[in-house]
Amino acid sequence: MSLDPKHVQKSFDRISEIFSDIVEHAETLSLTRCPYRNASDLCTALFKCRNQEVDMSKPTVLICGHDGTFDVRPA
Amino acid sequence: MAELSDIDNETVRGEIEEFLVDPAEIERFVNLFAAASLEMLEIAEAVIIGEHEDVDSLTQQALDNGTSALEIMDDGLIAGMGIVGIKFREDFIFVPEVLVCARAMKAGMAHIEPILSASGAMTQETVVMGTVKGDLHDIGKNLCIMMLRGAGLTVIDLGVDTAPEDFVNAVKETEAVVIGMSALLTTTMPNMERTIEVFRDVGLRSEVGIMVGGAPVTEEYAISIGADAYGKDAMACVEAAKGLAATQHSKSAT
Q: What is the mean pLDDT of residues B216-238?
């Protein structure tokens, strides 16, 4: 099947545009919020971190206790 | 202009209603989704909620039903990811959720890319990516992978704590011409150099372009350990990978 290469390129350009905006916002956001902290404020990191706090009601769940006062880009 | 009620999918309608505020964006997405088929809306919905298994099966189903690869890409996968991008920009969701949605989109693209390649509309370059041995940080690497896949590159993700031999084996198995190594700790950075040494030891160093990145990594460090490129961020990583692939291909052509 032949596909229009220009159309394909346009679609990939749109993906790149969406992802570039995401990466740019992630960089800004990482100045105040750990990138491993999800929308439910849980820690998704595979490693131990001093900001991890155990939820006493669910001991297997790690909460992010980071207060956003330092640059967490290296996290 | 189409109306929100013209969109035949409750979840997609709800997402627009709840998370989009810019009138121009609302108009663009309402028009797009109102014109989309039920199948495409289901795919977009699965991308938005990050259900990679659903995206996988729905994409296959749509192709089996004769829907074109480009329609699935534009009206299902990209349209869904567009909503995800806006939710992230507006801080309704964060990086971990975005990566789940990107994985869902990738599950659909896995069906689309071979069709695009077979038609000659895109070339498939393979890049092997991993966080080096001893290092469990993966967000930066995952954002790079998202960008690389978004640019149409095939990525073999070796995950975290990747031994030098695993990079070598992946290159041997996939014939990738580019590898990318990430390190987020100064203590694990030397494992980038060790990996490069192992490629030299097994006689594969000239066969691959090697790029490195991560918060403590600098261009000077990349040069000092014999890497071919340094990716300052995820966008630079795409340019570096494309450049290295082109260099490797021109080397093998001569």
A: 95
What per-residue confidence (pLDDT) applies to B118? 85
Range of the domain at A24: 1-32
Residues from chain B that touch A36, judged by Cβ atoms under 8 A, are 95-96, 139
Same domain, A9 and A22: yes
Note the ipTM here. 0.90
- Does any domain span residue A72? no
- What's the pLDDT score for residue A55? 81
Domains of chain B: 8-118 (1.10.1240.10), 126-253 (3.40.50.280)
Gap between the Cα atoms of B78 and B70, Å rounded? 10
Global pTM value: 0.90
* Rounded alpha-carbon distances, angstroms, from residue B242 to B123, B127, B144, B151, B236: 11, 10, 13, 9, 10
Scan residues 15-74 of A and list those with Cβ closer than 8 Å to B. Answer: 15-16, 18-23, 25-27, 29, 33, 35-39, 44-47, 73-74
Q: Which residues does chain A have with pLDDT short of 70?
A: 1, 68-75
- The reported pLDDT for the residue numbered A19 is 95
> What are the beta bridge partners of residue B181?
B130, B212
* Average of per-residue pLDDT values in chain B: 95
| Total domain count, chain A | 2
pLDDT on residue A61 = 87
Residues of B numbered 113-142 whose beta carbons fall under 8 angstroms of chain A's beta carbons: which are they? Answer: 115-116, 118-122, 136-139
Q: With contact defined as beta carbons under 8 Å apart, do B183 and B216 qualify?
A: yes
Q: How many CA atoms lie within 13 A of B65 on its CB side?
A: 13
The answer to whether residues A1 and A14 belong to one domain is yes
